[in-house]
Amino acid sequence: MSKLNYSLRQIRFLDECSEGKSLIHRINPIVKILVTLIYIICVVSLEGYEVNRLIPFFLYPVIIISLSDIPIAPLLKRTVISLPFILGIGFLNLLIERNLHGLLIFLSLLIKSILTVLSSLLLIATTGMDNIAKGLLALKVPKIFVLQLMMTYKYILIFTEELITSVNAYELRSSEGGISLKFAGNILGRFFLRVYDRAKNIYNSMILRGFNGEFNIGKKISFANKDIIFLILWIIYFVLIMFFDVVKFFELILGVVT
Fold it and tell me: What sign does the CA torsion over 143, 144, 150, 151 have?
């Protein structure tokens, strides 16, 4: 039971982080979406063997984490979850290219995965899914896509809550201290029925409140000077490290000085 409660807390962690009042939290969600998108495009666009050029891209998550006061350990833990799949692809590539070039591609793939996943988590943790949905709609993303994204996210929370309720109810009635395989099918069936009823009740509540398939974003998102400055500064930095080898430049400077 404690594991299920822990899982629910892990899911809600990003929602809790998004309620912060830091400078990054107050940045326009449209701006944060655009900056994150440009950042990811720049990261994945670099050649597979240019590992050293990925180093300057770490500055973005470091600054965002520092200014948003988000605990770094839980973020890194969630980032690591995606690594086994990436490591599997990287090892397959190493089997094909058993040389330095293959190793560089493997390291590049690993670093790119860490940077892209971490930047996406930071976007959610500093913006919140509701504001991300508003930003996507303002950017003219199809409403059906945004609606499905929000419904899926909310349904995962409902799914986990009902699973905790079902398991807790069984454990309170059982003296075995766990779930017996003999009753697992019955518990699972009741669980899906509870989830279905809960989802239907939520949908009926939405209908009673005037839901007609449209996603209402409320008041219009406004821009401030800090939003424009945030966007311009990061675009300039991304373009700079994308088209110029900053690491090599500093190596040359240090070589001249020494």
Answer: positive
Give the whole-angstrom CA distance, residue 127 versus residue 14: 9
Q: How far apart are CA 215 and CA 45, in angstroms?
A: 33
1 near 168, Cβ under 8 Å? Answer: yes
The Cα–Cα gap between 179 and 167 comes to 8
Q: Virtual CA dihedral for 189, 12, 151, 124, nearest 10 degrees?
A: -150
Q: What is the pTM of this model?
A: 0.81
Q: For residue 15, what are the contacts with CB-CB under 8 A and spacing of at least 6?
A: 128, 129
Q: How many CB atoms lie within 10 A of CB 246?
A: 16
**pLDDT tens digits for range 110-141:** 899 999 999 999 999 999 888 898 899 888 88
- pLDDT confidence bin for 162, thresholds 50/70/90: confident
Q: How many Å from the N-terminal Cα to the C-terminal Cα in the chain?
A: 61
Instruction: For residue 236, give the nearest of 51, 61, 38, 27 by alpha carbon.
Output: 38
Q: Please spell the DSSP secondary structure of 37-94, one letter per residue.
A: HHHHHHHHHS-TT--GGGGGGGHHHHHHHHHHT--HHHHHHHHHHTHHHHHHHHHHHH
Q: Output the six-digit token pair for 200.
A: 């239907």
Cα separation, 175 vs 152, in Å, equals 36
The domain locations on the chain are 1-16+142-218, 19-127+222-252
- Under DSSP, the state recorded for 213 is S
